[in-house]
Amino acid sequence: MKTKLFCLMAMQVLAGVAQAEEPLRVVTEGTFPPYSMTKSDGSLTGFDVDIANALCAEMKVKCQMVANEFDGIIPGLIARKFDIAVASMAITPERQKAVAFSDKYQGGYSTFVGRIGQKLDGSPASMKGKNIAVQTGTIQANYAKAVYAPAGASLRMYSTVENALLDVTSGRVDALMVEIGSAYELKKTPKGKLVEMFGPKMNDPKYFGTGSGIAVRKDEKVLLGKLNAALKTIIANGTYKKINNKYFDYNQYD
User: Fold this and answer.
1) Is the model's pTM score more than 0.85?
2) Range 33-58 average pLDDT
3) Pick from 3, 8, 142, 224: most CB atoms within 10 A?
4) What domains appear along the chain, each with residue ranges and CATH number?
């Protein structure tokens, strides 16, 4: 009996060690340059990826980066397919009903990208009768539905901003509403010379939230505390600035 009890306890200890060593599954989009991109070998890179890796290193935990379409990230978190989402996800009241967010780790605003020479000012009135591309499940999509659709614009939904840009440059849509950092990155692509940024700085907190945060399940309070502590550290020790300067010519945190 003692031998059996000892074996059972040993198995439980080993199981606990194995479970402790399981990596945290960190999800990002993978098709949202320069925040997250998928390389030819299938590995992930970008601002969000580097931030995630820096946080994992600071917390001294193993992490596994995985990619998923943006509109499936929150459902995947809730279903426990992922543990952490580092995907330039704006902190909005609607999303806070479903998941918990870390402190802000980036700011930014949204803008329009359209073909050069259209002479549009980006106001709702100027976009009447125009086709606006937005990515499904994003704050840009919500804003366009609330502000531009009632003014007479037609909205086109895309799974990725890269696909949307193809239709912008081909003339199938008139403009793409996108986060400013992504707009700068699109300008660097071969087709980027065909487009320009225009319109107002779109950052109404009612729609765009108070910056982007790292999402976790609501019951992961300990993990959330560790993420916030690690985030404060990488900002204070210069790691955040180093990553920022690798991808942006401005302070992405503001």
Assistant:
1) no
2) 97
3) 224
4) 23-107+211-247 (3.40.190.10), 110-208 (3.40.190.10)
